[in-house]
From TrEMBL:
One of its GO terms (biological process) is DNA transposition. Coiled coil: none annotated. This is Transposase IS3/IS911 family protein. Gene3D superfamilies: Homeodomain-like (1.10.10.60). GO terms for molecular function: DNA binding; transposase activity. SUPFAM superfamilies: Homeodomain-like.
Length: 109
């Protein structure tokens, strides 16, 4: 299987998502993004700030309002994850459509 290459922006957003998501695990975020745990771990080690938000590190919401900048960063990271998931689902849908067309043409009832 060919190695996938990811843009620097994707890597930074993945690290931001991991560091800002309460209770997030490397495995969970990696699965959501469709990357390996090892890749995400390497990106966190290389690009991460080394600190996670207090609520993310504890895995519990602190109950404080997050700053607008932190909220924007979190939402942009979440948006990136959703865009990746949407692209993956669109590709799967297109493959299934092509398969349905192929098999519909194969049958001669």
């Amino acid at each position: 299987m060919a190695r996938k290459s990811y843009t620097d922006e994707f890597r930074c957003r993945a690290v931001d998502l991991y560091e800002s998501t309460p209770g997030a695990t490397l495995q969970g975020i990696a699965a959501d993004l469709g990357v390996s745990r090892g890749s995400l771990k390497g990106w966190v080690d290389k690009l991460g700030s080394g600190t996670r938000t207090a609520s993310a590190a504890a895995g519990v919401s602190v109950g404080r309002r997050e700053s607008q900048a932190a909220r924007i960063t979190r939402l942009e990271a979440e948006n990136g994850v959703l865009r990746v998931e949407q692209a993956k689902l669109a590709e799967e849908r297109d493959i299934l459509r092509q398969a349905a067309k192929y098999f519909a043409g194969e049958t001669s009832w």
